[in-house]
Amino acid sequence: MRTSFRTGLLALSLWTVVQPVQAQDVTFRIAHFLPAVASAQKAILEPWCAELGRQSGGRIRCAFFPSMQLGGTPAQLADQVRNGVADIVWTAPGYSPGRFPRTEALELPGILPLGGVAGGRAIWAFYGQHLKEEYKDYKVLAMHGDGGMNIHTASKRLAGPDDFKGVKLRSPNRSIARTLTALGATPVAMPPAQVTEAIAKGVVDGASAVWEVLLPTKLDEVTRHHLESPADRPAMGATVLVLLMNKQKYDALPADLKAIVDRNSGEPLVERYGKAWDDASTIARNRIRSLPGHTLTVMEAGQYEILLKRTAVVQTEWLADARARNINGEALIAAAREAAAKSLR
């Protein structure tokens, strides 16, 4: 009888020790550089968090910090999540030039297909084969594309490569900055939150910015002319985007919560991003078509081919950078093209 009583007490004490761990609640602090109304938060991260909460019985919650509310600049988001300032960040690796050199192979002119879904599939496949070592300090939840580079200007209409000369344009990453330079434009690096004011004040003439970001940042209010690639050709350039989680935060999760995060991340989350980007792009493009005084130009095929020839130097420069880092750049470009081709099948 006494033994049974002691056994019962031991079991009860073990249960009280283990139970809080099993029932652990967590709140993910999620930071990014766009306003809260952007697709990245409203159409993707908020529904994603809601699904994590539902599947965990409310044990996973999220707190959002849009528009760099935790301080710093977009270029510092990768450090913020690695150092635990945020638990999860959504950012562009290209905002930190040279830090993720292999990723830049995807951002070269004429590599990624247009569109969120196709681009995301190509990027995720490339990540699985070639980028895991580059992101070994993080838990990578998703990696996707921005749909492809477009140009939006306030007063000068661009229709082909000759029209870029002398135009000051915001650039989101090093590859696009080099692309603009090769076309005779002057690239100006700045985060999305500053672009609209910079155009309104005449600091720049326009911006390389994708359709998805146009409405949340109110770029449609300060630009009148919009240029995009032919629909059946690869993007003139692109920005890779990534959802990174603090590795220690992920490792500390109970096994059942890890399983929920894993089940809802990776390929399913990449597809979610892609669809949301395509939907947002359609909405923005249709709005531009409906606004008086706006022009939407699709570059003619011949002009597009000229643009690719003039920007071939961007690939040459990147290959030189890669060789200096003992990176096989040729193999990475070939793999990126192969992933892009497969994403369209």
From TrEMBL:
<dbReference type="InterPro" id="IPR018389">
    <property type="entry name" value="DctP_fam"/>
</dbReference>
<protein>
    <submittedName>
        <fullName>TRAP transporter substrate-binding protein</fullName>
    </submittedName>
</protein>
<dbReference type="Pfam" id="PF03480">
    <property type="entry name" value="DctP"/>
</dbReference>
<feature type="signal peptide">
    <location>
        <begin position="1"/>
        <end position="23"/>
    </location>
</feature>
<dbReference type="GO" id="GO:0055085">
    <property type="term" value="P:transmembrane transport"/>
</dbReference>
<dbReference type="InterPro" id="IPR038404">
    <property type="entry name" value="TRAP_DctP_sf"/>
</dbReference>
<keyword id="KW-0732">Signal</keyword>
